[in-house]
Amino acid sequence: MTQHTLGELKRSGWQSRSVKEELRANLIARIRAKQPLFDGIHGYEHTVIPALERAILAGHSINLLGLRGQAKTRMARALVQLLDEWIPVVEGSEINDDPFAPISRYAKELIAKHGDNTPIAWMHRDQRYSEKLATPDTTVADLIGDSDPIKAANLKLDYSDERVIHFGLIPRSHRGIFVVNELPDLQPRIQVALFNILQEGDVQIRGFKLRLPLDIQFVFTANPEDYTNRGAIITPLKDRIQSQILTHYPGSIELGMKITAQEVRSPEEQAKRVRVPDLIRVLIERIAMEARASEFVDPKSGVSARLTISALESVISAAERRALRSGDERTVARVTDLFAVVPAITGKIELVYEGEQEGPEKVAHHLMSVSIRNAFKELFPDPEKTRRQPKAGSAQRPGKPDPYAEIIGWFDAHELDLLLEANDADYRKALNALPSLRELVTRAHPYLQPEEVPLWMEFVLHGLSEHSRIGRNTLLEGVRFGDVLGSVMGSSAMEEEGDGDR
User: Is 306 helix (H, G, I), strand (E, B) or coil?
Assistant: First the structure.
């Protein structure tokens, strides 16, 4: 970057190359060095990333097609790291002219006038990325350019002079990466304007007789649902996009947890005050996975990874608020803190007709219930199977004793309230009142740290209630566990009281 004139650049031996040649060469260097294509992108190692690498090696324009929250834009932005760190441009050029291959009239005239003394500037790769969110009001002038009457007046030029042209986003992205997000939202007549750029690399502006052979790596993103809801990629344009790569959601809970943990933004003070065990993180990931399979949620819309990120942040905030109000210096997230994720769920799912009939909040609570129910069966003996086991003394061969019998029996004569804002001491005291509950947890999961055990004890109660082995009522201040019949009667009484109030 010590060269400041065209002559100095020539003497340095610098060689110009196209954007696609840069991307290809730098990708090859990464592959040989065993370096990943992206940092912080997980779950695509054997699917999306190999396809993207093949497209770059082939010099293709790319369309990333997938549902929302699948890191499409993030990957497009990360491609900048495959560009050379610095490139020379003709100083003052609007469209980043290559000093060795100028395409604008300004750059050509400047070089013709000054020769080797033509001043050059250096452009960092971060400046070579442009992005446009496709909206129905986007115009050809926005993307390609138009004649500028103010420039014509200031320069005292006729409108037929190409120097009055105001370049749009695409020409200004010359020698860089240009991304169009949500491509189907572009009006068909605007998509037509991209034909020549993709096929021939040139643009035409307002009938001016000029050819600008632009050097651009195009990346598009699209949601499959957009093809029917808001628009479509017209066939001729789709034919000119050389590689279409399908993205997807994480294939496992562990992978989802890794992505969520990476993306969560919590203040350092909050992270010190609240500990979130893996059990809570698993339940949050399960909520998203259950939503993607739910009959109440529109599968075409998808369930973004942003749901789990917002949900985890909400749980941490709920636990912190509880600790602050109760005077605890540190606390561990609880299952009851999951009630705080309802706003994170309702704002990030699109419901089908049946879901609209139920209502978004009810669907959110249903997804939380299914998440707890299915996770419980994987972590403890299935309550449905233990209930059906033959009893000792029956005609059938006796099975193993029901591990939940003592806990369930306790609720025949007792109730247990877990308050949302109870301090840690009261929370532990309430749970320890149940005989054999702690023993059940530590026997099934002996590796648990002592501060996590109360969370798992609470989880057992929620799991048993989801399988109708014990009852559970939601109170304004928290939840109440009891026998199944009493909970049903209590729920009915509360509903009738509510109807009367209304």
Answer: helix
Give the CATH fold of the 253-379 domain. Answer: Helicase, Ruva Protein; domain 3 (1.10.8)
- How many CB atoms are closer than 10 A to CB 261? 13
Domain positions in the chain are 6-246, 253-379, 400-501
Q: What is the pTM of this model?
A: 0.84
Q: How far apart are CA 45 and CA 62, in angstroms?
A: 18
Structure tokens belonging to residue 483? 């026998």
What lies within 8 Å, CB to CB, of 332 at 6+ separation is: 274, 275, 276, 277, 319, 424, 451, 452, 454, 455
Q: Which two tokens stand for residue 337?
A: 């803190």
Chain-centroid distance, C-alpha 286: 16
If you average pLDDT over residues 415-434, what whole number do you get?
Answer: 94
Torsion of Cα atoms, 98 then 100 then 103 then 104, to 10°: 70
Neighbour count for residue 48 (Cβ, 10 Å):
23
* The one-letter amino acid at 35: Q
Q: Are strands 216-222 and 176-181 parallel, antiparallel or unpaired?
A: parallel
pLDDT at 397 over 60: no
Within this chain, domains 6-246 and 253-379 share the same CATH topology: no
Contact criterion met (CB below 8 Å) for 417 and 430: yes
By CB neighbour count within 10 A (0-12 exposed, 13-18 middle, 19+ buried), where does 291 fall? Answer: buried
Q: Which fold has domain 6-246?
A: Rossmann fold (3.40.50)
Q: Is the dihedral of CA 313, 316, 319, 320 positive or negative?
A: negative
pLDDT tens figures, 285-301? 999 999 999 999 998 88
Coil, strand, or helix at residue 26?
Answer: helix
**pLDDT range class, residue 230, cuts 50, 70, 90:** low
pLDDT digits (tens, 9 = 90+) for 448-498: 999 999 999 999 999 999 999 999 998 888 999 999 876 555 554 444 444
Query: What dihedral angle (degrees, nearest 10) is formed by the CA atoms of 279, 280, 281, 286?
Result: 90
Judge whether 219 and 129 are in contact, CB under 8 Å: no
* Residues 220/211, Cβ–Cβ less than 8 Å: no
Find all residues with CB under 8 Å of 377, minimum gap 6, and list them: 383, 463
